[in-house]
Design goal:
alpha/beta; Spore Coat Polysaccharide Biosynthesis Protein SpsA, Chain A; 2 domains; 8-stranded mixed sheet; 42% helix
Length: 309
Amino acid sequence: MKGFVSVVVCTHNRAELLAEALASLVAQTLDPTTYEVIVVDNASTDGTRAVVEGCSSRLPQVRYCLEERLGLSHARNRGWLEARGDYVGYLDDDAKAPPEWLDVALQTIVHGAPAALGGPVVPFHADAKPRWFKDRYELRTRGETARPLCPGEYLSGTNLFFRRAVLEALGGFDPALGVVGRRVAYGEETAMQVRIRAEMPGEIIYYEPRLCVDHLVHAWKKTWRGILLAAWAGGRDSSRVLEDPHTRRSRVRAAVQVVGQSAAIGVQSMRGVFWRDRAIHPYYQNFVYEVVRPRVVILGALYERMRAR
């Protein structure tokens, strides 16, 4: 529908968080007749349906649909297939949009009709924030200037709009990528942006700093295990999405690099305990995040290179 925007919220067993995300969407300053909210229930076993139906009974722009195939990409695809708008926005079920979010999105769409658009993702906390945790660890931004993104720059899937015709032309998101249930995985929205650049070279992927959302930092992301798990998965999936498999080096070379990276991680971890600069890394967790984590990202990418050959 011309001038109509669809917002898709994909969710799996997060009824309480979903309620807050929906509350932020129905409080938009945009005229309620110009947008819809589609909640894609991805095989939830909690009270997700009741939350959505309770909301939709009061606000007709909210509707529910069930996607039984587990996986975020399946849910994202079901969302755009259900959408009636020219543009489909994706907001995570653990995110909250400020009241002007859709108004800013529509202004950007009318101004330039990009293939994709998005903006910053700012962290918030539902529990006590550890003293060592720096919000910049979860801040996703491309600066303070509205602009088309350059090759190698990508928008976050937490806060992302696509022209529906683009999703249709490219066949939607790759079900082999993205979160499946509780399995930490990434990359389906980045892969879509890679394909837009490769197959639709005249199209624009646009960053608008006013198009900002708040995103929950889950407790597991504030633990050593969570930091390293996310780093591993990020490296693995970045390799899958961004590297040309035809230019990857041999499995033997990757295996040698795995050994080297693993040894470096061990040495750095010990250095962080005994000899780190406490003015720079006052807590060991800061050292893990800022020094060890990048090597774990590389390790995840090397694993994928070995596995994929």
